[in-house]
Every structure is written in structure tokens, then in C-alpha cells.
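User: C-alpha cells for this one?
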Amino acid sequence: MTVKGNRRPERNGRRFPLTTNALLLIMLAFAALAAGVLGACGKGSGASIVPGKASPATAPAEAQTRASSQQAMLNAGGMLKLGEYAASAAAYNAVADVSTDPETKAEASLGAGIATYADGDTSGAIVLLQRAVASAPPGGSTVRQAAYLLGVRLDQAGRAEDAIKVLAPLAAAPLNDALTPYVMNEYATALEASGEAEWA
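Assistant:
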């Protein structure tokens, strides 16, 4: 996926390709999470979640519903990879709309935001990413990923001050992970755009 329009300021002699590489990290994390959940819920049960019908006694209802949601998100991710952005966004949104699990709702909203942006709708992507941030349990990887992408999209939309508000908590408590350099660089970009950066 090619993402256009990102500024890439140089700091301390280093340049980070912002959104494209970070987006790949987020999508890989999605795939690993979904695969792990599906594996934990067991293979070959052949059960499906049908509204109004009792879940099989072979698996807890909550785990079975979670597995069904993760399978739906894997399918949505497959559409995204194929360039079927509108269909992918609709599939992710369908999961987010019915899920009662905050983490699943946040993951689905994040996926919908990615697909909606890829389909050319930045404003719609911002709304979905805001929902992802609001839904996600605090302190987890999903809220970090969603907040980072929300900051990027706000900055691209000319809303640098809003981007700073979203990115500041992440920049104030950096983690030793692959996403942190992109968070810090995008935060610096938003500060520069707003005129607040000391190094600008």
C-alpha cells in the first residue's frame, strides 16, 4: 500500500519513512494477534456464531464469539491486501458494530480506519480511528497503534494541534518497541507544523 503526503523531517541525521513502515508493523501485529486468538480457541470445531442460538458446549460462548470476530477481521484484512478497500472497511465495521468486547471493537475500528483511508476518505478514517482510541483498553498495543495513525491523519488533514494532543501521551511515555521511532518523529512533525517545535 502506498501512502502519500507524509512529511519526513530529519532529526539527528536520521530519517524515518513514517506511515508506510509503521502501517506494516500494525498490520503484522493484527495478523499475529488474530492467529493467536484463533489457535487458543481450538481448531476444527466447525461451530459458527448464529444470533439467537446457543453456543456449543465444547467451547465457552465468549471465546467462541471472539474467535468468530477474529476470523471476520482476518477476512477483512485479506480484502485490504487485495485492494478491496471499501469491502474491507465494511467488514471491519460490521465487527466493530456488534462486538461487546472493547479490544475487539478497537481492533476492528482500527482496521476500518486503515481501509477507509486507503479508499481515499481521510475524514472518515479519522472518525474511525477516534473510535478505536476511545474503545481500546488503556495501556495496550491497539490504543498505541490507533493513536499513532490518528495523529498522522490529523496532521495530514492540517489539524496539527489536534495531532499533538493525541501523540503527546505516547511521546511522553515511549516504549522500547518498533513503533516508538515513528511516534516520536510524527510528534516532531506535528510540532513543526504548529510552530511549537524548538528545533524547527
